[in-house]
From TrEMBL:
<feature type="transmembrane region" description="Helical">
    <location>
        <begin position="388"/>
        <end position="408"/>
    </location>
</feature>
<feature type="transmembrane region" description="Helical">
    <location>
        <begin position="294"/>
        <end position="315"/>
    </location>
</feature>
<dbReference type="GO" id="GO:0005789">
    <property type="term" value="C:endoplasmic reticulum membrane"/>
</dbReference>
<keyword id="KW-1133">Transmembrane helix</keyword>
<keyword id="KW-0808">Transferase</keyword>
<feature type="transmembrane region" description="Helical">
    <location>
        <begin position="346"/>
        <end position="367"/>
    </location>
</feature>
<feature type="transmembrane region" description="Helical">
    <location>
        <begin position="322"/>
        <end position="340"/>
    </location>
</feature>
<feature type="region of interest" description="Disordered">
    <location>
        <begin position="1"/>
        <end position="29"/>
    </location>
</feature>
<dbReference type="InterPro" id="IPR005599">
    <property type="entry name" value="GPI_mannosylTrfase"/>
</dbReference>
<keyword id="KW-0812">Transmembrane</keyword>
<keyword id="KW-0256">Endoplasmic reticulum</keyword>
<feature type="transmembrane region" description="Helical">
    <location>
        <begin position="240"/>
        <end position="257"/>
    </location>
</feature>
<keyword id="KW-0472">Membrane</keyword>
<feature type="transmembrane region" description="Helical">
    <location>
        <begin position="163"/>
        <end position="188"/>
    </location>
</feature>
<dbReference type="GO" id="GO:0000026">
    <property type="term" value="F:alpha-1,2-mannosyltransferase activity"/>
</dbReference>
<feature type="compositionally biased region" description="Polar residues">
    <location>
        <begin position="1"/>
        <end position="12"/>
    </location>
</feature>
<keyword id="KW-0328">Glycosyltransferase</keyword>
Length: 542
């Protein structure tokens, strides 16, 4: 206990010493050549920020509706007074904390007159780029604290080169911010180090606060922090003090502030984590949006996210013998596998941890190459490419095309059409829009940024299972559905739909004085429905 108190009284960072996972740069036979660039965290952050800014500008495709509908659309409504709230906000299963971050951004843009179509479309991802760069920096710091500087550099390479991190990390999903907070929080938890007693106790309090904040934003983040908390209980010497004087007050404070914020925004007391638990776990409400086999994360989801980094991550996990981190990944994947509804983004916080192991594996290969060159003749390295050089080539040759294709090409039509309609609306050429496509298939007011009537097909889950929603009715019989819809209401000036439905509705639209004015490429192959190759815009003839 005295040793722990003395350690906590000295505000010194923990040394990156691991008994079972030695810093490769300190092994015998390796001559440390610490780069001046990596000796400064300011340089590392600058590199990561520049990379993420370019990354954000290269993301021009549609991935998941929540990127727009659960963050930007809500923020737009808060600041500008119009925007669509999905059924989740009526049920109180979403916290306003995450959307408010972008509401502040929108307010700043409005004050300076920068709420133009370009800024409205790109500024949110640029803000997320800042958060992502912070996550990258703490990823490097965590890798350095556990494995040392040499491994940390290779881990950062893996993080920046992975196609899914490039594709998803800069999107305005709550999962992206959860990933950032997970990386920051893990850095401050003593149990994640080999020598927890050498970590100042004040850092653990920061780790607790960040963990609580992550849970306030994404209640399912508790899965991660439950595991970490149990590890901390196992290594700490004063368990009662940890629970009573740290976990309870810090958790209660963050949860209380989150509830006060939601009380202010909802207008009534709403316990979001409880409502979220009831819908997603106790009632399996998420299954309404589709289910997968129990093994999906292991056989498809997480393996696709790692892609060609997979064998390096597995090798690094085995060689490093850092079972605490390996156990964390396995725990999260297993718990999420229990639920029927599964998505790639749910396990995004675990991807950097797996990539850290990839960095370890690459660093072992780099050391091996260094030893080979040192022991061989001066020109021996010219006879054949190094193992790590070949690995880098394979990783970049596979991940760069994948990242660029998914970020610039696949499913870009729904983003392009809203940017086009935004510009047309600013020129007063649009009076009303009807979206005849599966619900939430495009961005909405947050991108259009013009207050005019718009209509989407509703897909709110029914209280009774098996009852088709409005979107289902449309997909079953598009012509009959649209005929009834237009008979009972006024005609919009524009209709937006996928080409797969446009083929069925073309004659009907033409008979009602609509003409095709634009067609945007969307995808080369189908995802979960018929091929939606393009997005078509019809306009009502004057």
């Amino acid at each position: 206990m005295n040793q722990r108190r003395n350690a906590s009284s000295k505000s010194q960072p923990a040394k990156p010493l691991i008994t079972k996972n030695p810093d490769i740069s300190k092994q015998k036979g390796y001559k440390s050549q610490k780069s001046n660039f990596f000796s400064s965290e300011k340089n590392i952050f600058t590199l990561c920020l520049a990379f993420r800014i370019a990354n954000s500008l290269l993301i021009q495709t549609y991935f998941n509706p929540d990127e727009h509908w659960q963050s930007l659309e809500v923020a737009h409504r808060i600041v500008f007074g119009y925007g669509h709230l999905t059924w989740e906000w009526r049920k109180g299963i979403r916290s306003y904390f995450h959307p408010l971050l972008f509401a502040v951004l929108y307010k700043v843009l409005a004050l300076f007159g920068l709420d133009t179509p370009w800024f409205m479309a790109h500024a949110p991802r640029l803000l997320q780029a800042l958060f992502s760069a912070v996550g990258d920096l703490y990823f490097y710091r965590l890798s350095n604290a556990i494995f040392g500087n040499f491994v940390a550099k290779w881990a950062l390479f893996s993080q920046l080169a992975n196609w899914f991190m490039f594709f998803c990390f800069n999107r305005t999903l709550s999962n992206s911010l959860e990933t950032v907070l997970t990386l920051v929080g893990l850095y401050y938890w003593p149990c994640m180090r080999a020598s927890p007693s050498k970590v100042p106790l004040v850092l653990r309090k920061w780790g607790l606060a960040i963990a609580a904040l992550a849970c306030a934003i994404r209640p399912t983040s508790a899965i991660t922090w439950f595991y970490v908390g149990l590890l901390e209980l196992a290594v700490t010497r004063d368990r009662l003090k940890f629970l009573v004087l740290e976990v309870v007050p810090i958790g209660a404070l963050v949860l209380g502030l989150s509830c006060l914020l939601d009380r202010l925004m909802y207008g009534s007391w709403v316990i979001v984590p409880l409502n979220f638990l009831k819908f997603n776990f106790l009632s399996s409400g998420g299954d309404y949006y589709g289910t997968h086999k129990w093994h999906w994360y292991f056989s498809q989801g997480f393996t696709v996210m790692l892609f060609t980094f997979l064998p390096f991550s597995i090798a690094g996990s085995i060689k490093s013998k850092c079972w605490k981190l390996s156990g964390l990944i396995a725990w999260v994947l297993i718990v999420y596998s229990i639920q029927g509804h599964k998505e790639f983004r749910f396990v995004l916080p675990m991807l950097p941890i797996a990539l850290m192991f990839s960095g370890y594996s690459l660093s072992v290969m780099a050391k091996s190459d260094s030893d080979t060159r040192r022991k061989g003749s001066p020109n021996s390295h010219m006879k054949r490419p190094s193992k790590v050089g070949f690995a880098i080539f394979v990783l970049l040759a596979t991940n760069i095309p994948m990242a660029l294709y998914m970020s610039l090409v696949h499913q870009r039509g729904t983003e392009d059409v809203m940017i086009y309609l935004s510009k047309e609306a600013q020129n007063e050429k649009v009076k009303g829009i009807l979206f005849l496509m599966p619900c939430h298939a495009t961005p909405y007011y947050s991108t259009l940024h013009y207050d005019l009537p718009m209509r989407i097909l509703d897909c709110s889950p029914s209280e009774e299972k098996g009852i088709p929603d409005e979107s289902d009715h449309f997909m079953m019989d598009p012509v009959s559905f649209v005929s009834t819809l237009m008979t009972n209401g006024s005609l919009p000036s524009h209709v937006v739909l996928f080409d797969s439905e446009e083929k069925l509705l073309r004659d009907f639209l033409i008979s009602h004085s609509f003409t095709e004015i634009r067609r945007f490429f969307h995808a080369h192959f189908k995802v979960d429905r018929d091929l939606q190759a393009s997005v078509v815009v019809y306009a009502l003839a004057n």
